[in-house]
Amino acid sequence: xxxxxxxxxxxxxxxxxxxxxxxxxxxxxxxxxxxxxxxxxxxxxxxxxxxxxxxxxxxxxxxxxxxxxxxxxxxxxxxxxxxxxxxxxxxxxxxxxxxxxxxxxxxxxxxxxxxxxxxxxxxxxxxxxxxxxxxxxxxxxxxxxxxxxxxxxxxxxxxxxxxxxxxxxxxxxxxxxxxxxxxxxxxxxxxxxxxxxxxxxxxxxxxxxxxxxxxxxxxxxxxxxxxxxxxxxxxxxxxxxxxxxxxxxxxxxxxxxxxxxxxxxxxxxxxxxxxxxxxxxxxxxxxxxxxxxxxxxxxxxxxxxxxxxxxxxxxxxxxxxxxxxxxxxxxxxxxxxxxxxxxxxxxxxxxxxxxxxxxxxxxxxxxxxxxxxxxxxxxxxxxxxxxxxxxxxxxxxxxxxxxxxxxxxxxxxxxxxxxxxxxxxxxxxxxxxxxxxxxxxxxxxxxxxxxxxxxxxxxxxxxxxxxxxxxxxxxxxxxxxxxxxxxxxxxxxxxxxxxxxxxxxxxxxxxxxxxxxxxxxxxxxxxxxxxxxxxxxxxxxxxxxxxxxxxxxxxxxxxxxxxxxxxxxxxxxxxxxxxxxxxxxxxxxxxxxxxxxxxxxxxxxxxxxxxxxxxxxxxxxxxxxxxxxxxxxxxxxxxxxxxxxxxxxxxxxxxxxxxxxxxxxxxxxxxxxxxxxxxxxxxxxxxxxxxxxxxxxxxxxxxxxxxxxxxxxxxxxxxxxxxxxxxxxxxxxxxxxxxxxxxxxxxxxxxxxxxxxxxxxxxxxxxxxxxxxxxxxxxxxxxxxxxxxxxxxxxxxxxxxxxxxxxxx
Length: 809
Fold this sequence. Notes:
FAD/NAD-binding_dom; flavoprotein; iron-sulfur
């Protein structure tokens, strides 16, 4: 550029524009860069808005490039500023306020906006899109005041909005014109599986419904459909699609169809002006996914910096998403047609589905549901128009090598292939970081390149690249700690605590060399648990290292009130206790009393300052509904009352609950006891499930009825109540000693292995007795937290009398 710094103006501060700028900065320092963004924020990850909505991330968490990044790279940033048009004659960009900025080159990256259905009532109060932080904030506020929401649109945005609103406590119905969810990315089979999973999570659906009108006064009150049926709703999210934001291009006289028309080097019809991202139309196609915009940006960056590059010829569209905890993927063609050869496998128990489409034996498309391990490999094979072979079939469908699939290979991935779709990080960028900067862990790669920084879906591929580049050095070099504060694993930390006699979290962090002296919300609760598990007699529980529910001994609700759950052993209570619960609920204006799935009563809506008095007047033990501990032991009526019952399940359930309550565990823990194999207490989905039979009891472990459901595995059969209790204690203690913090037994069983658990707990009588001795010792040092809190007047004043508490340790 002959030493002259050209003036580059970027119109749009989103992911497409700034990722292009990042690529340019890697190639040259020859531009004086100015960025205009309509929103009052630095560049953030729009893909992560659903996490902000559900409350698991803040706005700060999803910022990709903070204000310091712009300063460090000499970029002039104008936030909250909209460009009205380009004055090509004077080569100036003009803002709505009349500010003029000269340019040599321009990149338009204005993205897209929500499409609002032009039906009567669309402009009523309470109707929003879901596209930016402002929309997200409106939804968060609405959830505080209103209860019934309708989300129009069963695509990705609609489902993410629905997920977030359900998490906020709203009753949500997704209204979709088509009969299949995400019909542009998934085939009917995967769509049906997705719908069933989301229904299990509390989202309702009205399929094949055409919205004709939004009804109500000033504020929306419901939807009227084409068949004249009505759905009540006091809040409506429009998520029916997006439209390219082409206003600045139209006002500047550029060629615009649906999007801003560009050639294969992203050049618009106006000299020196380029366009990337969702606002762009290339060869008649506007892309609404992130991977194409990163591919466009890499080619434009090279072209604008006069670096030789192949032209952009379009993208093989693929979609890899995690929707409400469910992994889905599609690439290329995904709907069957007569000219396709279809390879498919569906597993109802694991809730997984895989389909590969061939045309003339060439791979042209794929759909994955539940398990997306093969997504990178399939995307590469389809992009390369690979022919199917017997070996490839065996690898992809798991029919070779004894039924085990080969791990997806990264060796043949192109250097410019995108690994992290959220942040546009290529394989080449990751390889360069490993080889040139000596990086050896996922966390280091995340900090350096941004890969895995957002949804984390690319982590397995990043690990494969580490393995590929580092070879035998990967295991030691890429070892992952329990969090970013340390490289030490769970087992190493526990060993060090035992060997060095460490007593407090601060002591652990100091002695073991934490990079963050105060730790983080991930490691502090874990260390506090490990210390208590190792030395239950001497460890002083650190309330500041617990989450808010555990500090307050009650479950905090979204309105700031709390839910109190008294213990009901085995789901059994007395008329006197029920009357006490009713009287206290009336006295303290409890909003609702709910029967839970664990056969207890939730007192919902207790004010923080009333908690101690409610506990005192209930005079019942804490139900530990907030704790990483034994929550409930669910029972059927068993042989006491049921004509099918073979064992006294109520008595056994109450006995087990009384024995093992209050003990800290790696994660929440649930049990169930059935009096016969009819399974009325649902033992098959509990951490420990017990089923009575004529000869005694059968013991199951590792069940989970949550987002990642898992049927429990049969561990053993026993004949006596005494042996059953001993086995339950040994299993719980073995889980306490070997489980990772926050690891449910469903994950623990799969990691440790059922045979290993059986060999330690069932077959080895000496080890079983030792485990039982250790759990008895720990049980001897627990007490009811409500009674403990009532004795501590100073603690009551600090926690419950108007002082705000952080939701994280």
